[in-house]
## 1
Amino acid sequence: MNTDLFLLSDLLAELALRQLPCGGWAALALSSQPALEATCFSTLAVGLAAPPSYVAQAQEFLLRTQNPNGSWPAFQGDEQDGAWVTSLAVTALRDVVPAIPARLKAFHWLLECAGRESSWFWKWKFRTADRHVRLDPDKFGWPWIPGTLSWIVPTAFSILALNQLPCTCGGFEKMPFRVERGIEMLLDRACPGGGWNAGNGVVYGVAVPPHPDDTAIALLALTGRKQEPLVQSGLQYLVKTAPTLTAPWSLAWAILALAAYGQGIDSLYKSLVALPDLTKTDDTGTIALACLALDYQRTLSALGVTA
Amino acid sequence: MNLTRRDFLIGSAGLAAGTCVSAPFLLPKYHVDRRSKRSRVAVLHAEQYSQKLDQILAAGLRLFPIDVRGKRVVLKPNLVDYAPGDAINTHPLLVLAAAESFRRMGAKSVVVAEGPGNQRDTQLVLSQSGYRQSLREEKTRFVDLNRDQLIRTRLRASYTGMTHLWLPRTVLEADFLVSMPKIKTHHWSGATLSMKNMFGVVPGARYGWPKNILHWKGIQESILDICATVPVHFVIADGIVAMEGNGPLNGTPRHLGKVVLADDPVAADATCARLMGFEPDRIAHLQEGSRFLGNAAASEIDQLGASPDAPSRVFDLVPEFRGIVGM
């Protein structure tokens, strides 16, 4: 399938208009506060086609906003403890040579950051006293912010980011263990009928339904486990659900995940292109993600995912 | 009794030490007292979601001395996730009726704002739950509070131990904030009403989906800290079809046929609790909230509409919360 160059060009032009003087992007059109999620997706998107200086400004912004501990904040001005967007920043700076030290520092932070159920006390609590949510606390991943539980999206993005490490030497020996635990955590928190939501598959004995975007992001992190039955059932859920989607964010994620698994995406791609007023979407991250889905092959390559 | 200088000094030192140790437990954890002498609540009958809600709501609002002329009104519905046939979200027809009413009352602007707690794709929830089309037709602006511009805000109570939260500008700059909850049971807080609905102002982009930090800090405690910090000026609660059982997502729809209006979130929630057959004083955040956020006692509430009679059958709850049932 050929990339829809007209729409991609319009969307990239809209991203150019929304770029803030500091080089970052705000999450919403009317905001002037640079947000890291929107900035990371936009940096990846403009990297698909924009001139180098334009991309460089975004990359420089990312390098400037890194916290001293190696993490990234959720937005410029936030506290410096770190947030889930660190894995996205690492990915957005993937091919930037001057960013290598910053990325190495971020990988260290990612390896140290873990869901709270990784500690013995909370493992014990979830096994004995707090059993309303079905989870195996031995299988942990990454939280949205330090000091909270592991959730699907930050875990999946962290796995994708850590998979970019070229080797496990030089202080990164924990990487295979953390990635493996993260994969186990994703599989443990899958919804009983297939797919993923934020991370609660069963609560009070009741199955909680999956979400298409969470499922797609989890599937992208699990491309190395394509034969796992839980991965297959997640894929089946997404194949069935994606044609019903009319929201660009979920549709774009579905295109990326299904393309990664070699599924047919022609009709989904056409649906994305046909969505009205995509350039007027308030959410800048959604516009960037639509660009990434329109150029899905290069995006999958940037995410380190092989189709 | 002869009190020597030595006895006096030892006694004073002991008293000072005792005060230091016990003061944190004795001092109130709230920094503001928002209670008015009396609160007003109106329980309106509305059998179903229909265009008639416009008239019902407008008539209900006329019972209150509200002046929103020239004000920025923000409507905060409960929009969590979507499941077909479930009563998870505040119905869009009620939200649009409220928007129309406040516009007619002279509001400078009316914005609908929410940060869904479970679903990152806000547009998907808006679309599936019928909001997207309705908001577009009525030209009503929606702000995704999960991704709005954030302002570091000092908390006006200290139940969680947190000193501040990053909160959305749209909410902090509202002149008139209306909490529009769905009347539901909640498996971790007993009931989710206008006060618990304020969890939605905590931004997912900063704190995650769900807003897990609030669970770790204590749900009841977080409700109190948030409501102390972000004042709710009015409540319009959707109890036309409510939810019982394993709420807020997996409960059973329960027809109640009521819309509850109030100028005090504690009074609103106490009234809703009574309509569900619960004893407000047994819901921790309502009991504590009645010390500084509003009035929960029936004797302090002027009922402007129908009386909040207990239901013929108490709302079903998960076992841990059956103690809040008041009959």
## 2
Amino acid sequence: MTSPAVVVTQLSKTYSPSPLWLRVLLKTQVRRPVVALDGVTMTVPAGSICVVAGPNGAGKSTLFRCLAGLVVPTAGAASVLGFDSARQSRQVRGVIGFASGDERSLWLRQSCEDNVGFHARLRGVSRADRPARIRTALAAVGLADAADRSGFALSGGMRARLQLACTLVGSPAVVVLDEPTAALDPVGAHDLIGLIRRLAEEREIAVILSTHRVDEIEALSQRLVLLRSGRVVHDGPVGGLTGGDEAVVEWRFTSIEAARWAATRLTALPDTAVQSEGSTVTITSTWTLGALLQVLGDRLDTLESVQRQRRPLREVLVDLLRDPVGTDRRGDGTTRHGDLGAA
Amino acid sequence: MSTNSDMAMPLSGPRPPPKRWHGRQSVSAVGAFLHMEWVGAFSYPLSFVFNQLTPVVPIVVYYFIAGLVTVTRVGGDYFTFVVIGVASARMLSAGVVGLGEPIDSAIGEGRLEGLLLQPIDWRILPFALVQWPLAFRVVNVALVIGLSLVLGAHFVLAGVPGAVGLCALGIGATLAFGIAAASVKVLAKRTDPIAALYVLAVAVLSGVYYPLRVLPRQLRALSWLLPDTYVISGSRHLLMAHGATTGGPTPWQAAGALFAFDVVALPASLWLFVRTLDYGRKSGVLAGY
């Protein structure tokens, strides 16, 4: 069992309204306490990818900033490689690499090499090691040939990869990527996700990534944490959402009689629902396909085709994440994150 | 994309964070900012040249005005008098205005969060960000002095080291102002008025264009609150043949006052800066709230 690189325990964050003296400096829209995170608990082992998804305002960015030590939680704790994010912020920043989907940390007038070199210096990479590490980081993201090109001359996908190279040059144990594909076209996003998967596997890096793209959630389905209004509503593989153990299978037989016979036998199985229509039998069951097929015995040759059905992930996510108006309003005057815009 | 061999040793496996950063690592981190600003500035060479020349041109205006001013209160040489004032004020503006610009740009372009996520001591950030404005002004002031020499300004060479020392102490003092202003800026997102007010106060109260004694007594009391007053006055004593006649604090008085201010105000402003960032972590201001 790999020890967790990231441990989050009952993490909560409530943003309070600014005190009056601060409102003199900056007018803020936060008039009531805003609950951004509410008892979030999760762990991320080294070498694994954890996708954090949820609607806008669900608390993803606050969670990431708590991990990186940029936001101090109201309750609970987050630790990275054993360093407490709130109390040992600098140590945590030393082992964590953070990149966001926009180009905020890039110096666009400067070359790729300059950008990666800048991050190498901020991360304390020695002068002797720097050239090799810069080359390696750029090669790892496929930008070795673009080392001399300025940020302005890069496409959106290349800029996203450059951000990743800046993050990797410090050899972080944990990489946090806040919507890294937000500004990318489908091909660029696909390439970047492939790259992230490979890096996580090859370098034993724990990757925590947020995305709104359903295809990415499915592609990185090792682990999905769904947040809604600051709470975890799902933590596990994507398969658990789209049916999980309970699969829906459609069998088509060579005749109606064969279908009826099979339906009768299948109905006898526990935890199994059977619906027969013509020569088609639809089975909802926790049994494996092999176990179900054994029911047919020597009549297996009457089975013409088998089709496994899954509920589309998009529909499952919408059902899970839809937040009926008012349901998250608390009786204590606080408001859920997302109900109010940030300042 | 890369091959496996591309990703050999240098990046393989996470590195534990250094328990304590050595001074050399901090210097390297600070130097990284200078390098990036340098590369950025020289990617627009013409803009760089014009930005350097713009503050130099008014020296010509002062040269002609100096032909009309012959009073002894300005050491008998108004042109040299005003060049020292302008050059000193320009140099010292690195602390407040110079630091404000990169902080503004880091906040505006969203780069501040990225910087705060680096494993550097946050106290080195102001020094890292002020380097380029400072270096820019050193070149700028050198051009101002060079042009003024061509136009007939007279400086006492023996006083140059002392004036440079005073200037260094003055930059430390204005940097303390700048760091305090940056602390407010991190929370308020904008503090342009602070920098504008400072520039205005220096122009009116610190004797850049006229001796302090021409100011009403009440205003003169405010002059002593500005580090520029001490640097300008002390430098005139050192660099002008009859500098003592211009009034104001002597070089030693100026150095003493600036040193005392630096020793108290710089650590205090750094403390305030870090406390502000800590407050921002708790309140969520750093995350946009």
